[in-house]
Design brief:
Pfam families: Abhydrolase_1 (PF00561). The structure is a single chain. This protein is of the alpha/beta class and about 375 residues long. The chain has two domains: about 10-180 and about 290-375, 3-Layer(aba) Sandwich (Rossmann fold), CATH 3.40.50.1820; about 185-280, Rna Polymerase Sigma Factor, Chain: A. About 35% of the residues lie in helices and about 15% in strands. The protein contains ten helices and 14 strands. The chain has helices spanning about 125-140, 150-165, 180-195, 215-230, 230-235, 255-270, 275-285, 300, 320-335, 360-370; strands spanning about 10-15, 20, 25, 30-35, 45-50, 75-80, 85, 90-95, 110, 115, 145-150, 170-175, 310-315, 340-345. Strand 13, helix 9 (about 320-335) and strand 14 form a beta-alpha-beta unit. Helix 1 (about 125-140) packs across helix 2 (about 150-165), helix 3 packs antiparallel against helix 4 (about 215-230) and helix 4 (about 215-230) packs across helix 6. The longest helix has 16 residues, at about 255-270. The chain is globular and about 65 Å long. It starts with 9 loop residues before the first strand and ends in an 8-residue tail after the last helix.
């Protein structure tokens, strides 16, 4: 198994306005895109990979001359890997409103000449899927072999099966849910309030003040990171280990190793992630609820889906629990859809979908091999 090597992102400009779920629209926007592998003759081997909260279009490979630039799902995508770029043409798209190159709150609003800031329109999973469809149009791809995503990316994959059922043959939804629970929404709200109440936030227009609400971003990341890990992993990695041999008896200083770890994660996150983007993306998570338009009946919701499905969950993922994945599976079976389900007994919590679990990767490799065997006129 190898790496796709050095890669170069593309910046695609779209001048046609994109209608948004909120009733607003956005024009003259850019989306950052990366591709790996080659599109076969009949364009039947394309796989769209949708990213989660703090990821981007940079799925695999590295950037030339840049240290520690490995793509966020590099262990999964590449020659000989579960999503084999010797067989598939893989597409990564940075979502609208993100802070990794696609048009977002940090960019200039062409209508005002001022940085968008808090004026950037609210975006939803539906909007991202519509924008992704335009990228496929640009590439001349009428139907995807598959759409793959984990966590928030899994929500996008599910939404693809509902909004563009004829444009995909397989949906692979990993560590995701058909909607957020009240507890999940609560965690997101606490994280948002940490940002909004930071004195440096300035109602979302902190760019004009030359500051960043780093304190709020740090706390938001710490809250989020706690929910991504299982109790077992935290206990195994840190337990009650102290930073010093003796207690300092301080309410302000770091005493436990877990505190040091969370502060490190928060500090790192605050250096590269945009506060307004965090607000936008967590709200998109909150809003995702396709069953709402169908009387909260998930079976009715998936009646329009045409593709085949693979749903994967992890036993210790309490943020997107296996029970939520089983809701999706039941709804698909109610509609007699072709669905495979894997529940991986892994100790890592929600972060398991990013890690090197051989059982998990084995499931994905077997499924993608199955897809490759379906190609007509391709190289598989």
């Amino acid at each position: 198994m190898g790496s796709v090597g050095d890669v170069t992102p593309q910046r695609l400009l779209f001048d046609q306005p994109l209608p948004l779920r909120s009733g607003a629209s956005i024009a003259d926007y850019e989306l950052m895109v990366e591709t790996y592998g080659e599109l076969n003759a009949d364009r039947s081997n394309a796989v769209l990979v949708c990213h989660a909260l703090n990821a981007s279009h940079h799925i695999a490979g590295t950037y030339a001359g840049v240290d520690k630039s490995e793509g966020w799902w590099d262990n999964l995508v590449g020659p000989g890997k579960p999503l084999d770029t010797d067989k598939f043409f893989v597409i990564g798209i940075n979502n609208l409103g993100s802070c990794f190159g696609s048009t977002g709150p940090m960019h200039l609003n062409p209508a005002t000449g001022r940085v968008y800031g808090a004026d950037f329109p609210v975006v939803t999973v539906h909007d991202w899927v519509d924008a992704q469809a335009r990228v496929l149009d640009r590439f001349g791809i009428q139907q995807l072999a598959a759409v793959l995503g984990g966590s928030l990316g899994g929500m996008q994959a599910l939404d693809w099966s509902l909004r563009y059922p004829e444009r995909m043959r397989h949906c692979i939804a990993v560590a995701t849910a058909p909607s957020l629970s009240a507890q999940n929404i609560a965690f997101n709200e606490v994280a948002r309030r940490a940002i909004i109440t930071d004195p440096e936030f300035h109602d979302g227009f902190f760019y004009e003040h030359g500051v960043v609400p780093r304190r709020g971003l740090r706390v938001a990341r710490m809250i989020g990171h706690i929910t991504y890990l299982s109790d077992d992993v935290m206990e195994q990695k840190f337990g009650r280990q102290m930073r010093a041999a003796e207690l300092g008896y301080s309410t302000h200083d770091i005493e436990f190793q877990i505190e040091s770890y969370l502060r490190y994660q928060g500090d790192k996150f605050s250096e590269y992630f945009d506060a307004n983007t965090y607000l936008l993306i967590t709200r998109a998570l909150d809003y995702f609820d396709p069953a709402r338009a169908h009387g909260n009946d998930l079976s009715r919701t998936f009646a329009s889906a045409l593709c085949k499905f693979l749903v994967v969950s992890f036993t210790t993922d309490w943020r997107f629990s296996p029970a939520r994945s089983r809701e999706i599976v039941k709804a698909l079976l109610d509609n007699r859809r072709d669905v495979s389900y894997a529940e991986i007994d892994a100790p890592h919590g929600h972060d398991a979908f990013l890690l090197d679990d051989p059982r998990y990767h084995g499931v994905l490799k077997a499924y993608f091999d199955r897809i490759a065997n379906e190609f007509q006129g391709g190289r598989a």
